[in-house]
Amino acid sequence: MTVSDPRIDPRIDPKGAREDEQITTDPSKPVERMRSGSMTLSLAPWVIAAVVLAFLPLVFTNNSALTIMNQMSITIVFALAYNMLLGQGGMLSFGHAVYAGVGGFAAMHIMNMSDFFSTIPLVVLPVFAGLFGMGLALIVGSFSTRSAGTVFAMISLGVGELIAASSVIIVAFFGGEEGISGDRTYAQPFFGVEFLQQIEVYYLTAAWVVIAAALMYLWSRTPVGRMANAVRDNPERAEFLGYSARWVRYYSFVASGFFAGVSGGLFAINYEILTEENLNTASSGVILLVTFLGGVGFFFGPIIGAIAFTLLQTVLSLSTELWAFYAGVLFVATVMFFPGGLAGLIMMHVPVFKLGKAGTLIKPYLYTLLPAALGLAGLAALVEMTFHYRHAIPGDNEMTVFWMTFDTHTLLPWLIAIAVTAIGLGIAKVTASDLRDAWSAANTAGGKS
Amino acid sequence: MSTPALELTGLKKSFGKAEIIRGINLSIGKAERHAIIGPNGAGKSTLFNLITARFAPTAGTVKLHGEDLAGLEPYQINRKGLSRSFQITNIFPAMSVFENVRCALLWSQGYKYSFWHLVNRKHDLTDEAEKILDQINLLGRRNLPAGTLSYAEQRALEIGITIAGGADVIMLDEPTAGMSNTETDYITDLILKVTAGKTLIMVEHDMSVVFGLADRISVLVYGEIIATGKPEEVRANARVQEAYLGAALEAEH
């Protein structure tokens, strides 16, 4: 836990390079640097992302991998939309799932309007979903964005609960408990593609991730996007610059509603069913968790968060029933120790790389992180064993943790797990001070690298 | 005589039973540099907040270029050409210095709530922001987060933000509060430079700044203006001497 100094807020860390403009203290040529060749550079991440997305299915060929990647893509769009509020606009929403959900439900209904649906290609369906999400945001935002902070959070929670509760009341739209299902293949074929196969859906979703992410990024570079940051930091000052804080928030909110709706539309295409689960507070909570885990201070944070969380959710849930517990622990640890999230952790290392001292950190990292990982594995084993001891069917004393099978009703496995935990964390605690020294040395200019 | 830049008539403000501002009449002409001085708790900042609609007045009117500001929101008043700074530094600390100034330019340059322009592509914005950074001598700090600047630099940045929108009435609330002598001189020169030709209204405690900058001075004591006039007139005014200035001037030397 020593790699991060929690007091360093990545947003005001001078070396955090929060903006796309690089840090330079050279006053002589600010204008030139600003203008020259930044287009090609700033396009690079997008091209790389698109290429990676295009080739991923060649690496992960089976259907379950495609399912996971689709889910990732949908979560990425949703998390980025959510961060338009949380990270960029300073609005903490506890009910953002309803915009994705309503967009998704609208998409399902369009799928079921076979006359109309057969005249549009499936690829544009997310636009319709987005418009419905935006429509709801237009209405709710008109009163919820009057202020940020607690008032906004409470209204978002209330509206979220209200709409989730109405899913069993307004059955015609939300389909009650069984939800609404449809068939995406009734759409007009898109260049002959009918989206019968998972791989076709993957490419549709992947294309939408790139488009939606690019549009959201561009949004953050527009006057209203810049002022969203200003209003987040200091609404009063923004008012004395001629901007109504409330209107700035409203525009962000509506745009976020649109992209949330797009993610709902992608969900509808991928799963062909929407239920109350797409609207409820749990889903709203998950997207908050995903976004925060990834890091709200950077545009790409939610993308990392969505990837990491989906992996936890899908891969980890295959091996343990307690995956949500670990996700919760990770979230709490993030809030407490790395408020910048995973993106913050990554960006913390930028100055080290710029100073050319990244190499000096490898050894200290290994010495601390390996034992720490071992200790945490031991801890996880203890948690799993306790869970098994308490909840397994009587007589079923055997369990398998980390590919080792043993009897939880004997003492030895417990002693081993406790020993591994204690030794691992103990070594990590001892080597942590070395890592701390190495870290501060690596962040100081000069000296031998 | 032309319309005054700012005209206050019978302005009053009470918080509950406490009368903080007790009827102020003040007229400030175009391109005048006007300082408001007075002891602590006299209501100087409250007066500022009344003019800029941070608080609603209990009675009386505020007119900017002859236009009544009653019922307007701060951002609407700002769009009419009145800009202010704050007693406590009020910038966007997480954003870069350049970004701070650029945000201050957006509205006046006509970008409004645009989401179809990309700010980095707008060279007029970049040029103008850098011109202002040059004026306030912060060009070298361009890309640092504003929150990491020194106190005096943050105050300079705030002045930059305040003037960036091109407002012709500038209100500065204690621009030199908490500064060393050299810093004070620096900020005073800066204010003179950037407010040339504009109407300046400032609250200030430092008498050397006040007498160095102001064309006219108003003395505010217990919510009332007891004297208004040229610096030398105010200095000679017996009531002012008694109420405030004598003690303040003694404290200076």
How much of the sequence lies in strands of chain B comes to 15-25%
Order of helices and strands of chain B: EEEHEEHEHHHEHEHEEHH
Measured between the Cα atoms of the first and last residue of chain B, the distance is: 39 Å
- Order of helices and strands of chain A, N to C? HHHHHHHHEHHHHEHHHHHHEEH
Brief summary:
With 449 residues, chain A is mainly α. Chain A has 19 helices and four strands.
Explain what this protein looks like in three dimensions.
The complex is a heterodimer of chains A (449) and B (253). Chain A is built from 19 helices and four strands. Helices cover 69% and strands 3% of the residues of chain A. Chain A has a two-stranded antiparallel ribbon with strand order 1-2. By secondary structure, chain A is mostly helical. In chain A, strand 3 (398-401) and strand 4 (404-407) form a beta hairpin. In chain A, helix 3 (63-89) packs antiparallel against helix 12 (245-271), helix 3 (63-89) crosses helix 13 and helix 4 packs across helix 12 (245-271). In chain A, 43% of the residues are buried. Chain A starts with 29 loop residues before the first helix and ends in a 7-residue tail after the last helix. Chain A has two domains: 43-317, ABC transporter involved in vitamin B12 uptake, BtuC; 352-442, no CATH class. With 253 residues, chain B is of the alpha/beta class. Chain B has one domain: Rossmann fold (3-Layer(aba) Sandwich). Chain B is 37% helix and 23% strand. Chain B is built from nine helices and ten strands. In chain B, the strands form two sheets. A six-stranded mixed sheet of chain B has the order 6-7-8-3-9-10, with helices on both faces. A four-stranded antiparallel sheet of chain B has the order 2-1-4-5, with helices on one face. In chain B, a hairpin with a 2-residue loop joins strand 4 (59-64) and strand 5 (67-68). The termini of chain B are far apart. At the A-B interface, helix 1, helix 10, helix 11 and helix 12 of A face helix 2, helix 3 and helix 4 of B.
